[in-house]
Amino acid sequence: MSELPDVSKMSISKGMAAVYAPKKQPGNMGAEARFQTNLTRLEVTKNLIYYKYDVEMALFFRMPSGSEEINEERPKIFTKGPKNDPDTQRRKGQATDVMQALTVQQAAFFGLPNNMLLYDRQAVMFSLSELNIPAQGGVTFTLPPSLLTAKKEAAEIRVKIARVTEDFQVSSNDVAKAVNIRPDQADKGILEVYNLLISQKPFNDPNWVTYGQCNHFMLKAPNGFGPDDLKPLEECMEMKVGVSKSVKVLEGEGKQPTVYAVTELKKTAIHRGNQNLVDKVLSMFDKQGGQADLRPNSYDAKTVEKKIKDLTVALIYGKDAQKEPKTFTIGRVNGPAANSKETAFAGAGGEKYSSIADYFARKYNIKLRYPQYFTVSPKSPMRGGNRPWFPMELLMVCDMQRVKKEQESVQNQAVMIRCSAALPEKRFNQTAAMKREIGLVPGNKMLLNAGIKPDDKFTMVKGRVLPQPSIAYAGQGNRPTTMQAQAGRWRIDRNKFVKAKVLPKWKWHILYGGQPRQSDNLVDDYYNRLMREMSDRGVKATEADVAYHGRANFNTVKAIFEEAKAQGIKFLFFVSESSVKLHDQIKLMELEYQILTQEIDYFKMKNTVMKNQRDTLTNVVMKINAKCGGLNHEMTLHGLKTQTKSPIESPNCLILGFEMSATASETPCLGFAANYGADLQYFKGDYRFCDTKNPEALATCIRDICKTVVAEATAARKIAINQLIVYLNGPSEGSFKDLITVVTPRIEETIAPSKQITIIVASKSHNERIFQQQISGENATKQNIPSGTVIDTHIVSPVITEFYMNSHLAFQGTAKSVKYSVIHDQIGYDLNTIECLTHLLSFMHNIVNLATALPAPLLVADRCAKRGRNNNIAKYGSGSDGPVDFERLNSSLTYNNKPLRQIRFNA
Q1: What is the pLDDT of residues 41-50, one digit of tens each?
Q2: Single pTM value for the model
Q3: DSSP of 151-188
């Protein structure tokens, strides 16, 4: 019998099937401990078969001629359609109503009440008994159209049910097949059944609304949630509580693949429905008495543009407005005023209208209240192929739509963050309450009849707490000093930085929102304190001039940079009042002029002086030194030494981080960072604009970046780089296959012929939570799991090397551990080495005396990606509907081939 190839020694060629790196033995460093989770073990009944069927529902209409003949060419299929929240909820509600009516009408056909049907409210249904449906063609049923519509031209509803062409039978014995070292061969059919099964209660309870298949929210909060948990939101929005759930096959106790349900407490903001759009927009100005200038291109109009774009609205006029109103999603905002003469047009019959307002007055006898306000237009063409402009007051906000990130006000974001930051004890109890609300309890008869029995309590797991590293400083009088981290933090005391830098020529600029000043005693005091702090830390700086600017705006900042360029100033230090919103413009000009910048808030400066906050001063100096290329401290392994030499000590090993996550509306930007200089603990980076959703484009971009940093590291260290450890943040498990087969071969090209590469994917978007076994204490630092917590057994994948790590100590809310997956590994480090490296890197952010949730290469890469996206918006605005010109963006908006790229400009 031939042996399987050792995939750890294989390079990946394009076109090969993906294979995960061999699973490593668990680590054993650190002190053992037990932890609680938010996972529930599901006991599975063996030898059950679930039969899978396709479902198609369509509403058919009579021919326009008025005859009884049915128009077979243009049915309205409501198991498919637009993906916006209101339309999706309406379609799923209709599908549920039709299926319920059909099962009543055809109870014998479906084997009811003895059989059980699991319907996903779209196009899939499972049955615990095989239905009398032929292998080919399926069965079609008809129902009266009155279930869905009152339109006279509606003829009938047809429901077609057919066997799926593949995987018709799903067995409860197939649990182990849901995971496979070859992701293409994983059979997740049983997980689809179980996910659908535990969604049945929220699917069928009118107090629940479901987004997707796994995110369930309650319209009325259950017991245990008070006013502090769900605070009011402004701008006609409401907060709802719910749960995000998923079913997974994990390693289990004793390495027996086991089914678990993960339930994560969630909160979301939704737009208040059935409200006039113009009233919603005016509510955004309640703090200024509801007064707003909403004429086209006014400041207020531009302010609300992001907040209503992508909102789904319904027409409140016309013959169908009361029962079945037409809806559309807003795509264009800030259109011409309804009373503007530029909106004059001719009607279908040739009649001429002098404006949109004139049209509604004559056609519908509607006199607009706000004809001077801007109009909005659909995202996609309506029937007839047009995208007309509509007055806001003739539109109603549709119900059940979530608030997108771009639509949230700063105040609402702050409220959501506070309400979501529950301490561990409270979060754990509320998560347990939501577990009961969705019916994930042992006595749930529906689940028992369908073949699963949930445990009553959450799963307990074994883990470890890794030791804390040591931190080296230059000390005083050139005497090196080593500090010991405690619980993810340490004190710098009076020590000097390891590598303190000399500031280039610099100047201070104070930006006020109101009148300018000739001097400011607070600024003078802060300036003197900062200069002393820099001297104490070994950072050298010449005296800087201070300039004061009133009513600061874009032109003010532009003039400051022009002056700096003419005078040879290389560092600009800004102190800005809170009303001055010029941060993004300052950072864009930093790029364009290649002059370093730092901006602090005036109020924070005032607090630093008035409250004598020296630690805050130290943090500012740490950022200044890092931006100038300095290293504030060095980490030493201390108790994190393993039998294998750590990669952070190996000059031939390069450690990189790539940040790939972004919202759908943002221009995709790939941030990266690496220790590609002579100092192995100094991470710096940049960003590239590329289509991160396209595996080929992503692979090419990452290859080019790796090629560049490998060459620079080789030159700086004067040694060949033959190992790459690559951390990726953002990819989902569904993209692992492309990372292995498309991206990895491109990375291999950069260090051929050695091809020693290890790829580790980090994620904070998972739903797993880890809690102390006994939660006690009155604050977050005492209730949360300790810095160094690592779990690499029981609740991890049976086939992928995974571990959960919590390097930082949370100061508010409940810590969310990072999940790491080693998907490709040619270097062969054991898990102790990888875990200790990851933990150590989380202490290398270099601008705070704290461990961070993500390791330094990923955190710096994240900041770079954000800088790139913000620079793009500051330069070109947001919301472009056209294709992205990546070549133009990369040539004009990145730090590539520019002086500041050689230092950590975004510290």
Answers
A1: 999 999 999 9
A2: 0.92
A3: -TTEEEEEEEEEE-SS--EEEGGGGGGG--SSGGG---
